[in-house]
């Protein structure tokens, strides 16, 4: 069942919902199978790398079709978009949620453009996520500021925009491969107490499992995970190719990686449960 984030948050408010970056059919269907096995809602997310690999008007309808056929609630979400044309196209093809990432802009620019995105999205029942503060990247090739979210700025941003959910920077880092993130739970608590809006944590592959549970119990409504699934698929594919050097049929080679992605997604969803 395809739904937007607002529907997910209203129907599932006892702990956070996992959002997984997916890059095509293989990982998307594996994530949905994981969600169906656990009877959990889930969010399929398309980031800029995925959009550059598969245009939104191609990957979008595929993910939307998978979501509609799923036995659990699924949101199809455009993640970290900085392009108004991409956001407009995502809304046009049927994404149920979009994120405008103005975290690298001034506060005033971020507020202004987020309001424009909301004006575009809400008439189509599309939910909107934004970011205040900035979650950095472990990859030095990505030139992005890393700025912790201040509770007062989060409140000001929410009051100025009325955004549906708000990504905050409290210690996570995008593309971490080890679970070594140091979460500032006191900062998160202050934000949650001041800002009555669903909160989102990005870069959660680097969060220890015990802290995923703590995040889920600390007012976080959406936890984004991407790198762990990419590692599961890539490492298993490499091993499959080494074990079967004469195999050239990618459908056969993809079977074990898809199973491993499903297992990894189930493990993360179970870790989020309190």
What does this structure look like?
- This protein is α/β, with parallel strands linked by helices and 274 residues long.
- It has a single domain (5-272), classed as Aldolase class I (TIM Barrel, Alpha-Beta Barrel), CATH 3.20.20.70.
- It has twelve helices and eight strands.
- The protein has helices at residues 5-11, 25-38, 48-53, 56-69, 84-93, 107-121, 151-161, 185-194, 209-216, 227-243, 250-253, 255-272, and strands spanning 17-21, 42-46, 74-81, 97-100, 127-132, 165-168, 199-201, 220-225.
- The chain has an eight-stranded parallel barrel with strand order 1-2-3-4-5-6-7-8, surrounded by nine helices.
- Strand 5, helix 7 (151-161) and strand 6 form a beta-alpha-beta unit.
- Helix 4 (56-69) packs parallel to helix 5 (84-93) and helix 7 (151-161) packs parallel to helix 8.
- It is globular.
Q: Specify Rg, calculated over alpha carbons.
A: 18 Å
Count the E strands: 8
Could you describe the largest sheet, including whether it forms a barrel? 8 strands, parallel, barrel
Mean pLDDT: 92
Which secondary-structure class do the elements indicate? alpha/beta
Uncertain spans: none
Strand order of the largest sheet: 1-2-3-4-5-6-7-8
How many helices in DSSP terms? 12
Task: Report the CATH C-level class.
Answer: Alpha Beta
Residues in β-strands, percent: 5-15%
Q: What's the number of domains?
A: 1
Distance N to C terminus: 25 Å
Shape: globular
CATH architecture: Alpha-Beta Barrel
At the fourth level of CATH, the homologous superfamily is Aldolase class I
């Amino acid at each position: 069942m395809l739904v937007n984030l607002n529907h997910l948050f209203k129907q599932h408010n006892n702990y956070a919902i996992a959002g997984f970056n997916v890059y095509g059919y293989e990982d998307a269907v594996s994530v949905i199978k994981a969600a169906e096995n656990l009877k959990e809602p889930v969010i399929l997310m398309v980031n800029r790398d995925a959009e550059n690999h598969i245009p939104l008007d191609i990957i979008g309808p595929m993910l939307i079709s998978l979501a509609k056929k799923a036995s659990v609630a699924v949101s199809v979400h455009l993640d970290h978009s900085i392009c108004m044309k991409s956001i407009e196209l995502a809304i046009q093809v049927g994404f149920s949620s979009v994120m405008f990432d103005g975290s690298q802009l001034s506060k005033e620019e971020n507020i202004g453009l987020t309001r424009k995105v909301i004006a575009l999205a809400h008439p189509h029942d599309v939910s909107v996520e934004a970011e205040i503060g900035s979650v950095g990247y472990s990859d030095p090739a990505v030139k992005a500021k890393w700025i912790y979210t201040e509770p007062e700025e989060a409140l000001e941003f929410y009051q100025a925009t009325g955004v549906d959910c708000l990504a905050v920077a409290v210690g996570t880092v995008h593309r971490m491969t080890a679970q070594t993130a140091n979460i500032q739970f006191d900062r998160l608590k202050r934000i949650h107490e001041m800002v009555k809006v669903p909160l989102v944590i990005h870069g959660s592959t680097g969060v220890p499992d015990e802290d995923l549970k703590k995040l889920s119990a600390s007012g976080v409504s959406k936890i984004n995970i991407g790198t762990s699934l990419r590692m599961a698929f890539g490492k298993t594919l490499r091993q499959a190719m080494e074990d079967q050097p004469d195999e050239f049929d990618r459908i056969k080679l993809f079977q074990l990686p898809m199973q491993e992605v499903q297992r990894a997604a189930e493990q993360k969803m179970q870790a989020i449960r309190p």
